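Morning. Coffee machine broken again, so started the prediction first thing and wrote up yesterday's gels while waiting. Chain of 679 residues, entered below exactly as on the submission form.
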Amino acid sequence: MGNKKSILTSRQKAIIEILVTDNPVTVSTISERLKVSRRTILREMPTIELWFDENDFMFVKKHGVGIMTNSDDSEFILALLEEEKIRTVYSKEDRVQLILIELLMANDVLKSFYFLDKFKISEGTLSSDLDAIETWLNSYNIALIRKQGVGISITGRERSIRQLIVSLLYSYYTEPLQATSFGLVSKYPKTEIEDILDDIKERFGVEYTDTGYMYLSLYLCVMLGRIKNNQPVKVDLDILEKLKHENAYEIGMEVANMISNKYQISCTSDEIAVITMYLISGFVHSKDDESRVSIHLINIRQSVLCMIDIVETELDISFMKDSLLIEDLCNHIEQLLPRIALKVPVSNSHISTIKTEYGDIFYAVAKACNTLKSKLDVKSISEDEIAFIATHFCASYERLKEKHGKITAIVVCPTGIGTSKMLAVNLKKHFPQLYIKEVGSIREMDKETLIDKGIDLIISTVTIDIDFPVIYVNPVLLEPDRVLLKDKLKNLSPSLHTKLKSVNYEVDIKEEIAYITELGSCILNIIETSLLYRLRSVETKFELIEVVAKVFTDDTNSFELVKSNLLEREAIAETYIAPYKMLLLHCKTKGVDKCRFGYVRILSPAKFGANEVVGAIVMLMPYDNVKAHSDVMSRISTSLIEQKPFYLAVKQKELGHIKNELEKSLTSFYKSIIKQRME
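Came back before lunch.
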């Protein structure tokens, strides 16, 4: 082997160890293992490749495979690494951050020699680094003091220094390992802090976002260092009083109490206030916080819809088609408001990229943010916050682009409560080129509405009279149906760029609350009154329908109405579900005043024509139903197809098991509806 020339850094050594043990390996894999960016790994590669060459080891880069080394050399390479001298090399950016952190954490003035010796740099280099630090500090109204013969220090208001610390934490997000390796939190094991936060999560039922968890844990480590160094924070009295009335203040007190007991320190009310700021500025939320349903959240939703409308008008992109965007923005704005009110600083490292790659979206969003000022009394919004909002629109734009080339369809059946949902599930499985916009009832359609919604095709289980592209299929989507639909799609062109008409997005608060109330009432009733009826045998479908009508009604008049409506529905289209060997008996009827669900299990399977029938799923809905009823029954239909435990419970288990699975499905549905409608 040749003489060694290159001296490795600790990071380069770690990369080589991965190259040897995970042979071959990609740059992406290495970056994930070391928690740094791909660009950082690529910067290290020339030195590593030179080291391999100097030591006569194989180093091959193969496109589509990764980096390969000779496995026979592995033991020699690892042995050589053990003997290798490791040096610490910092870039100017790293060095500037390190010096700044040292100055922030210091109790006293630091001599120039301290930095010259630590980083092995010249006085000229140190002077250049301090100039860069001074420029940064000036933007926070913090002064850098350099006195010859005395040393270097910083001075400024506590709030400004706290904002600077938060900004540093944000800058570590791209490569979080730097936060500990740079010494900011090295004195206190981050895992101990995380254990405290995990305990809080379980006790208070809160959920952390990924970034929020990191920022909060890092901040608590910084706080420990400050308290140990007698550097307490001070929060304005008016803000402190406001924070004490927040629900998160109680959690902040407990976090502070646990840290105080563990590390034998004392956390003041000001320290608790800062912890609370992190908790209520969007980093955590309660998993079961019923108070989230409020008029305030409905106002946020109204503002979000107005913002989207403005951006749509500016860019002529139908963002309102993306329901996920509405949900994401409602969540984000809810988090943004207290952050702005409490003046919690944020830094967006992607702002330049967003302006470059999505400039039109950024400036349209900036204009739309005036809605927040007028409707939600927001005084001002920084460009960093605007960029975070714009990120949601950028993601929506990419989702909409992904749908280009897909045919937008609406799936319908006579009532909209049963077979249409099942058909939609099967269509998604077999036709990825289809985008199922909605499922519903024939009664809810007209040509103008379909065009406004950008619908290209109606897929129906029954014949309908409408001047619009339509195809008729079996609810189970049999093979002939799939062939027919495939041919139909070849002759259709998507109209996804159709612009939605301007509509009034103001939400009627009373209507929203009434809908949620009716939804909950309907769900509770269905769970409570669901039935399992065992039928020894049955000869005909007519006889089965008579049994169902009798079991689900209490008087002769209701019996006749339900029987008649079920027979009418069966006359329109077959409701046999071949894979399950079941009938789906469903209809709207004046024979019930509330939604009903149940299953008739036939102990000796029946034979109706060529179809073997082991049971009948029953779903009855009041004739003059409200939207909440349709939504709940459609959810049950979907769950029977998509949730195997529910289907198996219906087919094989006792009523208790059926109710348990039904409750799981409808509870999840109820929570998701609350989030969509009320946030």
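The domain at 295-396 is CATH 1.10.1790.10 (PTS-regulatory domain, PRD). Going to sketch it on the whiteboard this afternoon.
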